[in-house]
Each structure stands twice: as C-alpha cells, then as structure tokens.
Amino acid sequence: MPVVASYCADFLKADMQHVYRQLSDLGRWEARVITHRRENEALFPWPPKRLRVLPKSAWRWPRRVWHRTLRRAPLVPPTWGEVKAFLYQVKRFEADVLHIYFGHQAVRWLPVIQACPVPVVVSFHGADVGVGVAPDALRRVFGHAALVLARSDALLADLEAHGCPRSKLRLQRTGVPLDFWSPPLVPRPLPPPDGAWHCVQACRFVEKKGLATTLRAFAEIGRVFPGARLTLIGEGPERESLARLAASLGVAGRVRLTGFLPPEGVRDVLHASHLFFHPSETPPDGNREGVPNSLLEAMATGLPALATRHGGIPEAVTDGVSGRLVAERDAPGLAAAAIDLLRDPARLSAMGAAARTAVMEKFERRTQTAVLEACYDEAAATPSNQSNTASCTR
To answer: Residue 38's beta-bridge partner residues?
Structure first.
C-alpha cells in the first residue's frame, strides 16, 4: 500500500474533525502523520507507529520574538536542523507523497518542499490563501508542489489569481459522513409548540464567522417570534464580546453559548433546531471561508441554511432551494429571510430536505476520499523535486 506522509502543525485542534476524517478514511493509501504538537488524543486516536512528533528547536522562542516582534513577520522560518529533521521523517516513513496542511504552513516549510525527494501536495482551506504570507513565497510553493488542492471552486479561482498554474489545481471538497450527520429519528415539529423556534450556529468564535450578524438578526427575529431561542456552539476570542452584544440587544436570556461540544453533542443540538445560521463575512485581512464544515454537517441533518454570498458557501447552498443567502453583514436581510421561512413551515421542511440532498450530491464522504486518493495517485506519478535522497539523512 502506498504511503502519504501528512503534515499537520497541530494534530489536531478540536475543530479539525474534517482533517481527521480525510486521514482515517483512506483505503488504498496509508496515512502517516508528521506533526509538531500532539493534541486531543482522546478525540483523535492514532496509531503511535504512524505518528512522528518533530523536535522543537531550543531557539524557537528567541527566534519567534525576533521574527514576529522585531521584524513583524507572521511566519517564523525553520532552521536547517528543523528542515533536516522533517525530511528525515519523510524518509523514515518511506513515503510516496508528502501532503502539507495548509497553505501558510507550506510557505513556512518551503525549504522542505524544495528539497523533498517525493512529490508534495498542498491543501488550501480558506484563510491560508494569500493572508499573512508573501505573494512571492506563495508562488514558490505553487512552483514546487506537484498538486494544489482546494475545497471550493471559489478558492481555486483565488489560488489561480495568486499565480498557481491551473494545471496543478484540483477540487477536493470536504467529505461529510452522512450516516453520522443524519436527520433526527423523530422529525422536528413544525411549527414547534408555543412558537419555540430554535436557531443555531456552530463555529470558531472569530470575526469571519459573522456571529455578531447572527445575534443582530436574532434580535429582530425575537420581536416577531418572542419564544425563539439561539444556541451558539464553539469557542474563540470573540466569546466575551458576543455575550456583551447579546446583553446590549436584550436577548441574553434567550441566547445560550455552550462552549466546545464533541460531535455527538453538536448533533444533538442540531436535531433539536429548526434553522442553521452561518453568515460568514470577509474581515479586513481578506480571510475568506472555503465551505464551512459545520454548515455542511447541519445541512446533512436536514436544516435549512441562512448564510451569505461568501467564499464557497454558494457552492453548497442554493438560494431559495436549500436555504437563503444574503449579502455579508446584512443582519436585517438575514432576519427577514428567517422570518419568512418560520412563517411557512412547509417551505422550511422542503428546504431542509433539499439541504440534505445537496450535501449527498456534492460532499459525500466516500466520494471525496476517492477524489483525494486519485490526487495522491496523480502526484505519485509526477517527478519529484529532487532525486537525490541524501537531503533526507541526518
């Protein structure tokens, strides 16, 4: 069985379930993981023999201060010793392909990509396209990578605009396990008793997720449906500011911030909900979404999506069919779209069914695993950057 050495700087953050699925779902290829930090072992179990944690440089903190504080560089380049240690593990794993998650890490580990004796695949998921990285460094990654993967057509267009040859670009969407993210066994009551409509959003609490827009829209929804409530699932730097905003809007008593929940907990909340919000927006640094994983998971459970025309979201949500799309930061428009749906339960139910169908057709787990393995097959047949394997030895 051919081997792909998959590099994730953190293996894995709690919100990186989609990466874990990609690695563990492989059938014709075997994934072996290279990382700098092993995290959340109970949530993401992995065979120790197929995992290597790279040593940390004794100079990492002085170098980080120098580059980030004094030089104001967002990425700290690796030392030659770190490059050698990385390449040694690629050789030790007897890898046929190296897969680097994500684009900004590929820029940081450009010396590894340039010296690697096997073809390199790089995945871009959204924020890593041109945000906080030098354009010339990004173009060098494109030049040395065998293939460049993106999770949406919108990201493919962004990557091409940044200089990636179209011949190297491949669409590899997020795969959703439809058996897990299934509709509830007992259909959601429409309308719910006493008008207790339940809205939900699940994501990291960061600016681009549009959580403040969700809260402002919910405040308007609450004027029409006073029994409605909102659950926000996740963690992040905006948590306290969101709590203050909910209080200032007078809806704090009907808004619940759950913190991080395991997948089973998220699914339970989705099964008890009627609308899913994800009004993503582009922050000043240009950080855009691909297709949010939580959006797809909610749609797979039969929830209509209330979202924005942002990044790859329109590739998952068809306005008026599987949900509603509005402009970024348009809280009144988002509220109006939600109110219209809540007033028409039959249409709400039909949109929920269409949402599940959309995920089945474009984002089914096994289909996307086959796409990824086909990309590895193609990359493995590409001549590597360097035939001399001496660079992989210590």
So the answer is: 11
- What DSSP element (H or E) covers 201? strand 198-202
Q: Quick one: pLDDT band at residue 390, thresholds 50, 70, 90?
A: very low
Is the Cβ–Cβ distance between 266 and 233 less than 8 Å? yes
Q: Helix, strand or coil for residue 258?
A: strand
Give residue for tokens 């994800």.
278
CATH superfamily of 193-362: Glycogen Phosphorylase B; (3.40.50.2000)
Angle between helices 345-362 and 293-300 (to 10 degrees): 120
Cα angle: 73, vertex 116, 159; to 5 degrees: 55
* Per-residue pLDDT reduced to its tens digit, 286-335: 778 889 999 999 999 999 999 999 999 999 999 999 999 999 999 999 99
**Residue 392: pLDDT over 90:** no
Q: Is 10 helix (H, G, I), strand (E, B) or coil?
A: strand
Q: How far apart are CA 104 and CA 107, in angstroms?
A: 5
d(CA 358, CA 287): 26
CATH of range 3-175+365-392; options 1.10.3210.10, 3.90.25.10, 2.30.30.100, 3.40.50.2000: 3.40.50.2000
Residues 275, 99: Cα–Cα separation, whole Å: 36
61-85 pLDDT per residue, tens: 565 555 555 455 556 688 889 999 9
Which regions of 84-155 does DSSP assign to beta strands (E)? 97-101, 120-124, 147-150
Q: Is the pLDDT of residue 263 over 80?
A: yes
- Write out the DSSP string of 291-316: S-HHHHHHHHTT--EEEES-TTGGGT
What are phi and psi for residue 277, nearest 5 degrees? -105, 140
Rounded CA separation 360/362 (Å):
6
Measured in degrees and rounded to the nearest 5, phi and psi for residue 367 equal -65, -45
Q: Which two tokens stand for residue 394?
A: 């210590």
Q: Which two tokens stand for residue 337?
A: 């779209």
Residue boundaries of the structural domains of the chain: 3-175+365-392, 193-362
Nearest C-alpha neighbor of 124 from the set 87, 99, 97, 143: 99
pLDDT at 78: 87
Spell out a b/e string for 230-240, using b for 16 or more CB atoms within 10 Å of the CB, else e.
bbbbbbeebee
pLDDT of 141 over the 80 cut = yes
